[in-house]
Design goal:
The chain is of the alpha+beta class. The protein has 14 helices and 32 strands. The protein has a 5-stranded mixed barrel with strand order 2-3-4-6-5. Strands 8-9-10-12-11 form a 5-stranded mixed β-barrel. A 5-stranded mixed barrel has the order 14-15-16-18-17. The chain binds 3'-deoxy-guanosine-5'-triphosphate (GH3) and magnesium ion. Magnesium ion binds next to strand 26.
Length: 694
């Protein structure tokens, strides 16, 4: 073999440009880089504990590339290497420029790099790759079971598995085979090569060599496993699938998965039945007259309910009845509509109706809003079950059915196995719950809509009425409070107005109106009880002069002082009123002796003759008083007032500052106010200006 040594200039990383001896493997080992020994086998490198790997041990090996993938990891180019001791994943920086051809699988290379902990197991980081020669992909590989791969111990190793290819999915860059092994399925991925037929592998029993790779979480824990294989050159079909799967004999569904001592590795089987439910790209359920069956399919070919179809798929132990996985189908001539069977929840839970077209009544209790499909949750009998329709087949009407409605649901019954209960028992499969797979929105028929009065609404109505009642009470209370307040205010102002109407604002004495009332009352009492009353009318003398010379303000104060003196001069049972101007009336009730009136008049004249002191002024004042008493005589108030008025004028005539008792002749004499001239030169006001207090 000619060794052609090609050294690739790795331009992506400056670290990669350094020679292994000079480079510092990682920031963590900068303290003692010389102390780390160089690892010379992939087994040594892959066996490091994570903390050790993190120290960045130098690695220098000669190995064969078993996988090269620039697409699968956006962070770097995925490379698997294999030497005689084992295998490892090498993380090649993206952006690298290979001077020649990339080191594709089967290339013998000289690799220098450092250890790193990787996402799950140690990897070879920052590889400096030198192609030595074109070699060959390792022929021998350790044969492993799925359970071994799933321990993670085979990480990065070159292994061989055995199984039947259930499906081949192709993307723009990759091809993934789903291979059913003993104990489960595993995905095996390779970089897609244009023009290569991968689909012929479906249903083939194959041996496949590839690199075991982990699936992991952020905590570097294993969550699954897969294989990366270089290409079809490492896949050997021991038993290829049939060229035309539909040429296989049609098997009755009820014969599937029955005991046979000659049962071999499960290849695809071929059945034929009438379509009961079809969810394009997901599920196709049929009934062949012996038993119903549902198949998982990615096919989306339009097909009508009731029409016959040929289905080929891998038998799957997934429910009470066998089902098919990775199924393909094609229409078959003819049709046979299948009628739904009416069932109860108890019948659904017996399991024999699994995959059958059924009809069941239930009450809607809610919807699973988190599901991408429309999922109605219903109760029936003692069970809660779900009715499911893919979003693509659904409608708003189905989602808008009101909770509490009674529905008739038609669809395929999917009975779920109670794995725990079944294991505990003698082997007979037990059901835990069931679902109904709807065919269309019309499969949920509302038989009875719920009453508008739900518990929630009744509660709400009660709450609202309570609030209204409480608001009414509060409002009534506030209104009543306001009415009481306003009534009080009205009463107060009415009393104020009445008081104002009956009392003089300047002196606070009763007015003519009130005096008139009181006088009438006093006259009535006097007549009934044969008592005497006395009435005095007095008028200040020459009061105008005070006003004119000293102003109305002083005049007002004189009037107030006059009122106070009059109040002081009478008993509490008597009344004094201001009739207007400087004229006052005193009503003396229940006079024991009419002469008492004269004494009081005398007292008043004396009292009002006292000079008034206002600020620095000393004003001489006086009043003229008319007196009239009534004993047994029947007289009205007006007459009495006229009489006392006449007497008062007589007092004026008599020179003022005196009182005069009414006599009948005074009425005859015309009661005219005497002229000012009548005032004697010695009247108090004549000396007004000279009486200022110094
Ligand atoms: P006479 O001795 O004849 O009674 O003389 P007089 O100046 O007192 O005359 P008269 O009683 O007719 O005049 C009363 C004056 O009282 C007339 C008016 O200017 C004055 N007067 C009336 N009401 C008020 C008032 O409320 N305040 C003041 N300051 N003066 C008033
Ligand atoms: Mg007067």
């Amino acid at each position: 073999m000619i060794l052609v040594a090609l050294t690739f200039a790795l331009t992506a990383s400056s670290a990669l440009a350094q020679s292994p001896a000079k480079q510092e493997p990682s920031s963590l080992n900068t303290r003692e880089p010389a102390a780390l020994r160089t690892l010379t086998s992939l087994h040594q490198a892959h066996s490091l504990a994570a903390d050790e790997a993190r120290r960045g041990y130098p690695i220098h090996v000669r190995a064969v590339v078993t996988y090269y993938d620039p697409y699968v990891d956006s962070r770097r180019i995925a490379l698997f290497l294999h030497d005689s001791t084992g295998g490892i994943y090498a993380a090649v920086p993206r952006g690298i420029v290979w001077p020649g051809q990339a080191p594709l699988p089967g290339t013998l290379v000289d690799v220098s790099g450092i250890s790193a902990p990787g996402d799950f197991a140690p990897i070879l980081d920052q590889p400096h790759i030198t192609v030595i020669s074109k070699s060959h992909i390792p022929i021998h590989a350790k044969s492993v079971a799925l359970s071994e791969i799933l321990t993670g111990s085979e990480d990065g190793q070159w292994v061989e598995i055995e199984g039947v290819v259930h499906s081949v999915s192709e993307s723009a860059t990759h091809v993934t085979l789903r291979i059913a092994m003993t104990g489960g399925t595993i995905g095996a991925t390779t970089v897609r090569r244009p023009g290569v037929d991968y689909q012929h592998l479906v249903d083939a029993w194959v041996h496949l060599r590839g690199n075991a790779a982990p699936m992991f979480n952020s905590n570097r824990q294993l969550t699954g496993a897969r294989l990366f294989f270089p290409g079809l050159e490492t896949v050997t079909a021991r038993a290829p699938g049939p060229l035309d799967v539909f040429s296989l004999p049609v098997q009755p569904i009820n014969s599937l998965m029955r005991f046979s001592s000659a049962a071999v590795w499960p290849h695809r089987i071929h059945i034929r039945g009438a379509v009961t439910t079809y969810w394009p790209g997901r599920t196709l359920c049929v009934d062949d007259g012996t038993e119903p069956l549902c198949a998982q399919t990615s096919q989306t070919t339009p097909i009508a309910a009731g029409s016959l179809v040929d289905i080929a798929g891998f038998t799957l132990l997934d429910g009470f009845n066998p089902s098919l996985s990775d199924a393909v189908f094609r229409p078959s001539p003819g049709s046979r509509p299948v009628s739904p069977v009416s069932i109860t929840d108890a019948q659904a839970l017996q399991g024999s109706l699994d995959s059958a077209l059924v009809q069941i009544e239930g009450q809607l209790i809610g919807q699973d809003l988190e599901s991408a499909d429309t999922v109605l949750i219903l109760t029936s009998g003692k069970s809660i079950f779900r009715a499911v329709l893919p979003a693509a087949l659904s409608s708003a009407a189905l989602s808008n059915i009101r909770v509490g409605s009674t529905l008739r649901i038609t669809g395929v019954c999917s009975t779920q196995i109670d794995a725990h209960g079944t294991l505990e028992g003698y082997g007979a499969t037990q059901a835990s719950r069931f679902w109904i797979l709807l065919r269309s929105p019309q499969d949920a028929v509302v038989l009875h809509a719920p009453s508008w009065w739900t518990t929630q609404r009744v509660g709400l109505a009660l709450l609202v009425s309570m609030m209204i009642t409480i608001t009414g009470f509060v409002w009534a209370f506030i209104l009543r409070h306001r009415v009481e307040q306003q009534t009080r205010e009205l009463r107060r102002s009415r009393e104020l107005y009445r008081h104002m109407a009956h009392h003089d604002a300047l002196t606070g004495l009763p007015t003519r109106v009130l005096l008139h009332d009181r006088l009438q009352t006093a006259l009535d009492r006097a007549q009934r009880f044969h008592k005497s009353i006395g009435l005095l009318m007095l008028d200040l003398d020459k009061f105008k002069q005070i006003n004119d010379s000293l102003g109305h303000g002083i005049g007002d104060r004189v009037l107030r002082i006059t009122a106070e003196r009059l109040r002081a001069a009478i008993r509490k049972t008597d009344s004094v009123a201001r009739m207007g101007g400087d004229e006052f009336v005193v009503l003396l009730n229940d006079l024991e002796d009419p002469s008492h009136a004269e004494r009081i008049a005398e007292k008043i004249v004396a009292s009002l003759s006292e000079p008034v002191r206002i600020d620095k002024l000393q004003l001489p004042i006086s009043a003229s008083v008319g007196v009239c008493t009534i004993s047994d005589e029947v007289v009205d108030a007006e007459t009495l007032l006229k009489r006392v008025d006449a007497a008062m004028y007589r007092a004026k005539e008599c020179g003022r500052s005196c009182f005069q008792v009414f006599t009948a002749d005074m009425i005859d004499a015309t009661p005219t106010r005497p002229p000012d001239a009548v005032a004697t030169p010695t009247s108090p006001q004549s000396t007004l200006l000279s009486s200022r207090i110094q």
